[in-house]
Amino acid sequence: MFRRILMMVALVVVTGSATTIRAEEIGAVSTVWKMLGPDHKIVVEAFDDPDIPNVSCWISRAKTGGIKGAVGLAEDPSYGSVACRQRGPIELSPEMKERLVDETEDGGEKVFKTRTSVIFKTLQVSRMYDAKRNTLIYLVWSDRVIEGSPRSGISVIAIAPWDEKS
What we know:
By secondary structure, the protein is α+β, with helices and mostly antiparallel strands. Helix content is 20%, strand content 43%. A hairpin with a 4-residue loop joins β6 (121-130) and β7. The longest helix is centred in the first third of the chain and has 15 residues, at 2-16. The radius of gyration is 18 Å and the shape is elongated.
C-alpha cells in the first residue's frame, strides 16, 4: 500500500512539475545557500503574449531549494514581479479589442501559469485591457486551493505607434 502511495506522489511530482507554460528561463540568482539540494533562488523567466504579437513579459519569482525543492515537494513563496514591453507594432482589430474588453470584465486572460507547489498553489499572469487608455495591463498574482495571496504586481503597455526606422 505504501509503495502505491509513493508511486502516486511520484506521478504527481513528475506531471505537476512542468514549471511553466510558454516560458523560458533567462537566469537565476542564489539567495540562500543550502548544504543539501539546490539553493533558494530568484528565477527570471520570459514569455511572449500568446495572442498579441510583439508583446513580451519577464517574470521574477522565488524558488525554494533544499531537499524538498530538489524533489519537487517544496512550496515556493507567493512573491512575483512582472515587466512587459512592446517590442514592435501592436495592431488590435475591433474584434480583438472587443474580446479583450470581454476578457477583462471576466477577470482577464491568463497568459502565464506556473506551479509553486506540488498540487495546491500557482503563480499566474493575467492580461487585462483598458480600452479608454488603449493600454494592456499584466497582473501577476498567486492562488491556492483554499485562498490566494493579496501580493500582486502589474506592468502596463500603453500601445503606441511603432516607427520601424528607430
